[in-house]
Amino acid sequence: MDPLICLEQGSNGAHSSYVSRANHIPKSIATACGSFEPFLLGFYICVIGWLWLWTPQGVGEQVVQPLFLKFVGSQSSGSNKDEMRGPDDVRKRKDIFISHKKIARWQAKPVHKVHKFLRQTPQEPPEEIIQQRLQNQTNPSQWKTNVVLVPAVYDEWAKYGVPYWARLKDYQLFLYQRKNPQKKNYAYNFGYEAGIYLRFIVDHYYDLPVHTAFVHARPQQHNRRWLEWLKCIRPELNYSILNNQYVKYRPLHSVGQADKEQCWRDMLSVGGHPLPPKLEPAVGFYCCNQFVISKRQLLRHSLETYERLLRMMGAPPDVCHEGPFDKDALYMNTTETTESPGPASSKMAGSTFEHLQHVVMGGHPMLMPETPSTSTCRNFLPDHECNGSPCRTAEGKKKTRGCWQGKVFLCK
Questions:
Q1: pLDDT tens across 346-389, in order?
Q2: How confident is the model at residue 18 (pLDDT cuts 50, 70, 90)?
Q3: DSSP-assigned beta bridge partners for residue 241
Q4: What is the pTM assigned to this prediction?
Q5: First vs last Cα of the chain: how many Å apart?
Q6: Which residue pairs, CB below 8 angstroms and at least 24 apart, start in 167-174?
Q7: Is the Cα dihedral 391, 393, 396, 397 positive or negative?
Q8: In terms of domain of life, where is this protein from (predicted)?
């Protein structure tokens, strides 16, 4: 029997961290390993194999066969509970990441079975309205850089320190605090990062930066190269996600109940893309709610639209939907009639914005397709002109050959 068989077997560990997995190994494997004891190589193989059996394994974590194939799964991009954003806590969902791309456990429906509304692009406002809103912008602007960073910070920087990118002179930083209403730049603590993003847009609607990057307090947990992407954006960029974890298909029933569906419907209605009655919402999107957007793209909507969204996702009375549910329109059956305020509503509002901002803010269909390289290169400079760009080219590959040492980029 080949000694590699001793390492190629796996099992599903559904027990506590230090429970032995020896009970799940067939007796034939133990016998095979024992047959190699007279030989030094067989001895080492068996020792390594049995040590592996006693390594900690989390509840529900899957051991992939063979052992040397390692998938990044069962863990979120962040280790801090404050960094979890709505339904994308993949420690609960057990989604799998393969090559930094997220593949949901549920399978996407065939294209011909997906309702056509889910593939429709939201209607653009007339060009003259956008031009009028651009003319109403303050001139000169208060912003010193073309790109302004707006991180959603609560107390993460107090725990981990102020990140180096917050001190860069390449980007102007605008910070809100969520603890003292009497102090400057206060944003009500509701809706997770959605409350911060919408607060900034409402406060600066008539003096928006050329580009605004909305990110988490620790954005590197979702994309360690987000800052390199940001420095490579094209001047004509309108909207782009700053994450690379793509969810191809996520129906509403997998992430929530009737109160969440009502919140989804409300956001789509306010954003000018109302969902037909009795249609189950479903999205394809890039997770984790970090994106860069232009002034022109933000001005697709009126100030009143953003104020309504802010009342839903970043202001009292701490509910996304006020009043009774519209049961005639809901896809899901429910015995509840209203939404209850509290932490669950705050999380629901934040996750709703995360799942639908590509529709309302970015102007994409609900089933947003995975970004092809051609689209990426429309938003970002090619990597042979700007190191670290997601727009990969053959010239860039030649230029950066030999520049990487592990995760460190050595070339300038």
A1: 999 999 999 999 999 999 999 999 987 667 999 999 999 999 99
A2: very low
A3: 291
A4: 0.72
A5: 52
A6: 170/145, 170/231, 171/145, 171/147, 171/213, 171/230, 172/143, 172/144, 172/145, 172/147, 172/148, 172/209, 173/148, 173/149, 174/148, 174/149, 174/150, 174/200
A7: positive
A8: Eukaryota
pLDDT tens sequence across 155-208:
999 988 999 999 999 999 999 999 999 999 999 999 999 999 999 999 999 999
Reduce the DSSP state of residue 31 to 3 states and report it. helix
CB-based contacts of 269: which residues, under 8 Å, 6+ apart?
275
Structure tokens at 82: 């404050």
Domain regions of the chain by residue span: 1-69, 111-379
- How many C-beta atoms lie closer than 10 Å to residue 360's C-beta? 21
Residue indicated by tokens 């000169």: 140
**What are the tokens at 168?**
């860069």
Tokens of 98: 């393969």
- Which phi and psi angles does 71 have, rounded to 5°? -100, 150
